[in-house]
Amino acid sequence: MNPNFVLRIAILSVLLFFSGFFSASETALMSLSKIKIRYMIEEKVKGAELVGRLLDNPSNLLGAILVGNNVVNIGASALATSLAIDIYGNRGVGIATGIMTLLVLIFGEITPKSLAAANSEKMSIKVSPAVLLITKFLSPIVVILTVTTGFVIRLFGGKIDTQQPLITEEELKTMVDVGHEEGVLAIEERKMIHNVFRFGDSLVREIMIPRMDIEAVDVSSDFKDILEVFRKELYTRIPVYENTIDNIIGFLHIKDVFFQDKKVEQFDIKSNLRKTFYTFENKRIVELFEEMRKDRFQLAVVVDEYGGTSGIITIQDLVDEIFGDFGDEYGGVYNDIENVGEGNYVIDGLTRLNQVNEVLGTNLSSEHFETIGGYITGVFGHFPQEGEAVVINDLKFIVLEVTSTRIKRVKLKIEGG
Which CATH fold would you assign to the domain 203-323? Predict the structure, then answer.
């Protein structure tokens, strides 16, 4: 056998090997997320820091791999064509093209990439030393190609974003959902994590107890009246106002009333008042939570742009945003959504749409209303009467109870439920 022929076959085999090496390296390294790399480094996985160094400049890394892969593939094709022509003459060009296409697909693309994808962490650590040497060797060519590519991209109005975030909020939410679907996270854990995201975005006006539902007492009220409010409403804290609800001057705690030492006739409401914290409607609740926690305030009065009382909010309301409703409204018993069986639910009119969606799996949304009562009023186009019903998709809403100003309770029937 011609020694030259054997040598060319050996070189062709080496080129096919490097084709597979470059393909496997690309898949293994580029499939690793920054989070995974950081975890590997923190766990002190041997070779992880080198992988991290390579991926600190992904454009250079990818450029070097692609240049190397193209060089060996072109070289292998040229060598195979030369061999085929020696054996088959002019027909060898077509034969070489067919054979090399098959060989490159099997040994240079599909097989190495499949193996690398299945073992990206181990594979990336194994190939990184060699890839680092190749990257340094090809760096002059890669720099020229990177500059040229950037120029062409800008020429067509594109932009290269080199400051992309490690992970976006939406990606993290998707990871949480996938973790739940695969059994890694329990449903309670999933809900809590999503609540944390919503906690960072929500405003005070979205979760406060609105002005019309504030149960408060006048500073001139006697002990008997105050006691009756506590017994009737089952609250642990009651706001106290002077003359008008727009002038809340503090709040009473139930233990200051029930366990006070003086006689009933000597009870002085002002001397038992606790300080109240004031905030505004459009403040982010994460900021309010930090302020109330730092200064140890349990209740805050929400004021509007004119200084009037818009609502109140408790530290418990803020905690509920993360951990769910503990049934405490200023410390009282409260249930927003009640399952009455057979796909029927009785919902408080002040329940927020996102809470209904979260609990019942619905997809209600509105640009103008935040509560289920306001949403239904908007759908009707007028203020509904008790007993009126409306169907939205597969959801039937029946108004159960109204006051002069709002829907107090509504029944939801999920059709087919």
Answer: CBS-domain (3.10.580)
> What is the greatest pairwise CA distance in the chain?
120
What distance lies between CA 95 and its chain's CA centroid? 54
Residue 55 pLDDT? 87
Whole-model pTM above 0.70?
A: no
Show the 3-state SS of 184-214. Answer: CCCHHHHHHHHHHHHHHHCEHHHHCEEHHHC
Q: Residue ranges of the chain with pLDDT lower than 50?
A: 328-334
Please give the full DSSP string across 89-146, using - where no structure is assigned: GGGHHHHHHHHHHHHIIIIIIIHHHHHHHHTHHHHHHHHHHHHHHHHHHTHHHHHHHH
Residues of the chain with CATH 3.10.580.10: 203-323
* Reported CATH class of domain 337-414: alpha beta
Q: What is the pLDDT of residues 343-376, one digit of tens each?
A: 889 998 888 888 888 788 888 888 778 889 889 9
Q: 4 is written with which tokens?
A: 């030259």
